[in-house]
Amino acid sequence: MYLGPSVLKDIIDNAELYPISGLFNFSSFFDEIDQYYHRTLGYEFGVSTGWRALDNLYNVVPGELTIVTGVPNSGKSEWIDALLCNLNEGVGWKFALCSMENKVRDHARKLLEKSIKKPFFGVGYGSNVERMSVEELEKGKKWLSDTFQLIRCENDSLPSIQWVLELARAAVLRHGVQGLVIDPYNELDHQRPVSQTETEYVSQMLTKIKRFAQHHSCHVWFVAHPRQLHHWIGAPPNLYDISGSAHFINKCDNGIVIHRNRDPEAGPVDLVQVCVRKVRNKVVGNIGDAFLSYDRYMT
């Protein structure tokens, strides 16, 4: 009324569109894209695992899902424990552990041995290597308390993935954890509606895990055993051998197979073969194999 029809027309022509929930334009993310380009976000190329042999193959990015598999007794859990120790030493990450096959005291021993680099006991597997001292144990106990949160189901029922993720979310918000380990898949409660197939269930479960990882910038390592391998001749399994569904390889960001030679005539038995079989983000890794030496007394 006061400025005239031309001003009203300009206001209408240049009006900002009413925002629609869930619909975005790239311009809303230009600041984040610029930070990504200038590498000011912090982990654009991921975090090193601490093993130079793996640096060109696999790096840890917040918000991604890594599936880890391998035949029984190949060292999957031991490798993940060593990786967590390296990440804590390198960049100070904290972790939530849902490790259902380990007693707390046994898991503590394994982590302390990897951190202190001395055996927990002085007999048996420790051979003649010097055992960690009481002072080192006390220091290690404080490190355990500061670095790890435990997700454990204390009753007889199996935990569901939703229950695990709710506690993991609390660990992120309350304790600032940057990594979650779920070990293994077959120890979770997998009840599903009669009308839902196992493939549909696995797809839905992995989607929940990926959304948790992305929303909380928390890297998730999910251990899944391969199905029973008939006529197995000792070669590393592949990700399609995981019991349950091909969605394990389809939906993960990274897929790793941990393998160990058991035949002395075929090669050294103290080498762990880390087979990187899938890397979705080409910026942080490549498909390939790396070999790590396993020290029984200190790792």
Number of domains: 1
In CATH, the topology is named Rossmann fold
Written as H for each helix and E for each strand, in order along the chain, the element string is: HHEHEHHEHEHEHEEE
N- to C-terminal distance: 80 Å
| Biggest sheet strand line-up | 3-2-4-5-1-6-7-8
Per CATH, the class reads Alpha Beta
- Shape label: globular
**Strand portion:** 15-25%
CATH superfamily name? P-loop containing nucleotide triphosphate hydrolases
CATH architecture: 3-Layer(aba) Sandwich
Number of helices: 8
Name the structural class: alpha/beta
**Estimated radius of gyration:** 23 Å
Helix content bin: 25-40%
How many strands appear in the DSSP assignment? 8
Low-confidence stretches: none
Task: Quote the average pLDDT.
Answer: 90
Largest sheet: 8 strands, mixed
Structure explained in plain terms:
This protein has 8 helices and 8 strands. With 299 residues, the chain is an alpha/beta fold. It has one domain (47-293): Rossmann fold. It has an 8-stranded mixed β-sheet, with helices on both faces. β7 and β8 form a beta hairpin. The mean pLDDT is 90.
